[in-house]
Amino acid sequence: MFGFSSCGACRGNTDQWMDTVKVICSPPADASDKENSDPHVFGAKCVRFADARDEQRRRDREADADRRWQEALKEAEQQRQKDGEDRLRLLELEQQQAEEEERQRQIREEQQAQEAEEERRRQEEEEARLSAEEAQKREQLDQFLSKSGFTDANERKSRKTGMMSSGFTYPLHAAVRAADIQAEEEQRPREQEAEEDRR
């Protein structure tokens, strides 16, 4: 019934290369627009591609998170170092301030010691001067008393002022008379100079 032999078209003019049909079992790379392509193969490839893309995104996110973590660690380390350096600078500053305060305290103590020494020396000089003045006054008093015939500053001598009356004289009375004499002796040259100026 189906006899192929009755047709003569296949017998004569046949070109083996041109008339050969080849069947490719694997679908082409882009089989989405092929109408005879297997939809399951394309879907599986899409799923594998999506899985690979998701895996790459996950790795990228992990790498990004790791990078951010490393940056945070580095930043924390830098902040820790900065804080340490700040603390060290603060300690150095406090030490310098303490040294400066100690130096100022020593300077004040030295100045106070010098002032105290100068005051002590001044007081000693004042005491020595007062003592020398006192000794000089004592010497002058002793000379005056011996010259006036007294042995003590509180000694009392009797003196006759007239035939019937008598009185007492003290070193003070003699000193007043001597001062009057001394003042009179000092006044004479001045009066003579004044008279010469008038002429």
Written overview of the protein:
Residues 53-92, 102-111, 118-141, 185-199 have a biased composition (Basic and acidic residues). Residues 53-199 are annotated as: Disordered. The model has no long low-confidence stretch (mean pLDDT 77). The radius of gyration is 69 Å and the shape is rod-shaped. It has a domain at 48-156 and 169-187. A hairpin with a 5-residue loop joins strand 1 and strand 2 (166-169). It is mostly helical and 199 residues long. Helix content is 69%, strand content 4%.
User: Which percent bin holds the helix content?
Assistant: 55-70%
Q: Overall mean pLDDT score? A: 77
Could you state the order of secondary-structure elements as H and E? Answer: HEEH
Total helical elements: 2
Count of strand segments: 2
**Biggest sheet, spatial arrangement of strands:** 1-2
Distance between the termini: 197 Å
| DSSP strand content | under 5%
Radius of gyration over alpha carbons? 69 Å
Large-scale geometry: rod-shaped
> Which runs of at least 5 residues are low in confidence (pLDDT < 50)?
none
Helix/strand structural class: mainly alpha
- Major sheet attributes: 2 strands, antiparallel
